[in-house]
Amino acid sequence: MKELVGLIPAAGIGTRLYPFARAVPKELYPVFGKPVIEHCVEKLREGGIRKIYVLVGYQKGALMDYLGDGSDFGVSIAYIYQHRRLGLGHAVLQAKGWIDSTFVTLLGDSFIEPKWEIKNLINLHLRERPLASLLLFKVQDPSSYGIAKFRRERELLVVEKLVEKPDRAQARGMEVNGEFYALCGAYVFEPKIFEYIERTPPQKDGEIQLTDAIELAVESGERILGVELIGKYIDIGKWETVLKTEREFCNSLSLEECIREREEMARRTL
């Protein structure tokens, strides 16, 4: 079996985090003393991944300076440059030609805890071998997310339909037992997903959405599975969710453990 690899899209501008993101990539916003993207690397590493591609764009040199070749974090990191920002689907498509095996995509501004959530998603995918496995979480307002509708087959969640940021009319009928389930930036894909992204028409703004590509795969008869998030997901993409992260997790933070871990990292990298 070919090596399982990781892909971290991190080419977004982060305008909702201005003025911070005007000077520093949003993926370097610190949570528990380490940038969000370092948490992403740790989650992939704990899932058994040792080779990671990071998708970067304009003004992302700081990410490359921080992560380097990945050796400080126990992985190997290479970089793919996205010249134009045309949606998440377009971003993932930039990895075609680099990745030819099962790969885990984890958004560089996604904070998911506990870390074993990603490992569970990977294990399900490797056991069932669908085209894609998606990590899902409950939301009250579906209009800001890609929304998935699924049916239960024994312990499996089989995705039947996906809609990107639905309006009220589009959201009607997308509930599962009265709840909306959103994609939270963690996916496991087979390389065939590139074919569906290439066939996905752009939205009115010219962007190719990953949700639309996965929906095209569903319509074509591909098997797509979901896993419900047990822990927490927070999008480090706007001040509201950033500050919620700090409030919700600070009480559970072991200050001594964080200090010790960061000081050890500093010594290793001197």
Overview of the structural elements:
By secondary structure, the protein is an alpha/beta fold. It has a single domain (5-269), classed as Spore Coat Polysaccharide Biosynthesis Protein SpsA, Chain A, CATH 3.90.550.10. The protein is built from ten helices and 13 strands. It has helices at 20-23, 36-46, 61-67, 88-93, 116-128, 168-171, 193-198, 210-219, 239-250, 255-269, and strands at 5-9, 30-31, 34-35, 51-56, 76-81, 103-106, 110-113, 132-139, 146-153, 156-164, 180-189, 224-228, 232-235. The strands form three sheets. The protein has a five-stranded mixed β-barrel with strand order 8-11-9-10-12. A two-stranded antiparallel sheet has the order 2-3. Strands 7-13 form a two-stranded antiparallel sheet. It is globular and about 55 Å long. The mean pLDDT is 87.
End-to-end C-alpha gap: 37 Å
Q: Which architecture name does CATH use?
A: Alpha-Beta Complex
How many independent structural domains? 1
Shape: globular
> What share of residues is helical?
25-40%
Low-confidence stretches: none
CATH names the topology as Spore Coat Polysaccharide Biosynthesis Protein SpsA, Chain A
Summing up helix and strand content along with how strands pair, one would put the structural category as alpha/beta
Task: Kindly report the spatial arrangement of strands forming the biggest sheet.
Answer: 8-11-9-10-12
**How would a crystallographer describe the biggest sheet?**
5 strands, mixed, barrel
Report the average pLDDT across residues. Answer: 87
- Going by CATH, what is the homologous superfamily? Spore Coat Polysaccharide Biosynthesis Protein SpsA, Chain A
H/E series: EHEEHEHEHEEHEEEHEHHEEHH
CATH class assignment: Alpha Beta
Q: Care to count the β-strands?
A: 13
